[in-house]
Amino acid sequence: MTSDTDTGGRRRQILAAALEAFDASGYGATTMDEVAAKAGISKGSIYNYFQSKQDLFEHVFTDSVAPDEAQVDRMLEQTDGAAVRLLGYVDYWSEQTARFRQVGKLVLEFWAAAAREPQDASLAWSLHELHERSMARLGGIVAGGIETGEFRSDLDPHVAAALIDAAMAGILVNQIVLGLAFDEPFIEAFKAALIAALRREPSAPRSGAEETGNG
Q1: CA 119 from chain center: how many Å?
Q2: Contact between residue 103 and residue 111 where contact means Cβ atoms under 8 Å apart
Q3: Per residue in 150-196, pLDDT tens?
Q4: Helix axes 184-199, 82-95, angle to 10 degrees
């Protein structure tokens, strides 16, 4: 009789082998035979855990980001202050960029595969849910900052979260595709710009007299 521990270990073994195969060959070129060979098992054994190559690909992706999400949530729960929480979120994200680069090709291929599917298909839906969770975290931080007076009262938390998320995604894509390295001064400048934008009150309109220097 196979124990739950054995089952979990075999599943992790398959996922690790699949990650290595997908990262090396890409989703399209990777075969289940290749995954089985890397895992040291028969191809048929893989189907005891995953329905298809697409199902395996989806689980490789979601399992890769799940530990990050759990750790981020713990960090946010244990941190007070919206600005501190946001800076902590960015710090954690930047600290993980080395590992993100390792699975980066997989992330981009997952996005591309999801984009080719109907919006209600499995891959696309997994990506949509991941994005919504990220938006909820960032939106919650911004909303909390507005409520406590740390951030501007005229902010729309959803719009602010979307802009922050897009900026971070853009930085990550530049790292993966172009191989650009963003050092500590860059990250510190990015963090400072975020906080300044969230805290800066809009300037009051100047009168015509002030604009012309009269009066």
Answers
A1: 19
A2: no
A3: 999 999 999 999 999 999 888 877 877 777 777 888 889 999 999 99
A4: 150
Read off the pTM: 0.72
What is the secondary structure of the chain as a DSSP string?
A: ---HHHHHHHHHHHHHHHHHHHHHH-TTT--HHHHHHHHTS-HHHHTTT-SSHHHHHHHHHHHHHHHHHHHHHHHHHT--SHHHHHHHHHHHHHHTHHHHHHSHHHHHHHHHHHHTS-TTSHHHHHHHHHHHHHHHHHHHHHHHHHHHTSS-TT--HHHHHHHHHHHHHHHHHHHHHH-----HHHHHHHHHHHHHHHHPPPPPPPPHHHHHT--
List, in order of start, the domains of the chain with CATH numbers: 1-50 (1.10.10.60), 53-199 (1.10.357.10)
Given a contact cutoff of 8 angstroms between Cβ atoms, the answer to whether 133 and 51 are in contact is: no
Neighbours of 198 (CB within 10 A): 20
Helix axes 53-77, 4-25, angle to 10 degrees: 100
pLDDT in tens, 3-37: 545 678 899 999 999 988 887 888 888 899 999 99
Q: How far apart are the first and last CA of the chain?
A: 91
Q: Which amino acid is at 118?
A: P
